[in-house]
């Protein structure tokens, strides 16, 4: 596998986990506006997101724009799967069909 | 009585979805700045100003996104982000006078339909600070 493709895939995975940490932070009881951001899950989440942005920028050196867009859309599958594992967010009919249509749309747009 | 409560819930949900889309729009403003940045001479003052603007926009987006995912299931909020494809296409047509192919238009329509289908699911919102 092209190393840049691998970097893009790892980057999407990191971005997916960063969203889980951000949601974890968002589920804490609200104390103050600042406290919404200055806590371990949210700070780590944003650090991961930043890492993922840098990794994706690096991946662009060796992979076509279209390929990156397709790889990035894996996030639309990964985030619901992680949300199911960590937050027990259920997969219902609307969610599954909607995400499949979104993925089809991204594929049609880019390919 | 029950109908009024249901109506209120629906109204709140629609309002939250509109707010979420505004945040996705903020995110797509970055693509406009990035496009302008490519026209600036590398390492010029303009170049750095564009990059500073990108960081600012991303910062505003990050702050708003964090507030918004309190109100939605993460999987639903994330699916809404796919609408960036519509907003980015809109900017490229309106601001950069680029044209869209039929294939691109078809892709955008599919993404919009998919997002609507995800949003139509009942109980996709969460209360603030709720543990699921």
Fold and architecture overview:
- The complex is a heterodimer of chains A (111) and B (132).
- By secondary structure, chain A is mainly α.
- Chain A has one domain (3-110).
- Chain A contains five helices and no strands.
- Chain A has helices spanning 3-26, 40-59, 65-72, 75-87, 93-110.
- In chain A, helix 1 (3-26) runs antiparallel to helix 2 (40-59), helix 1 runs parallel beside helix 3 and helix 1 (3-26) crosses helix 4.
- The two termini of chain A are 20 Å apart.
- In chain A, 35% of the residues are buried.
- By secondary structure, chain B is mainly alpha-helical.
- Chain B has one domain (2-119).
- Chain B is 74% helix and 0% strand.
- In chain B, helix 1 (2-39) packs antiparallel against helix 2 (45-68) and helix 1 crosses helix 4 (84-94).
- The longest helix of chain B is centred in the N-terminal third of the chain and has 38 residues, at 2-39.
- The model of chain B has no long low-confidence stretch (mean pLDDT 88).
- The interface between A and B is large, with 43 and 39 residues.
Write out key terms for the chains shown.
heterodimer, A: about 110 residues, mainly alpha, B: about 130 residues, flat
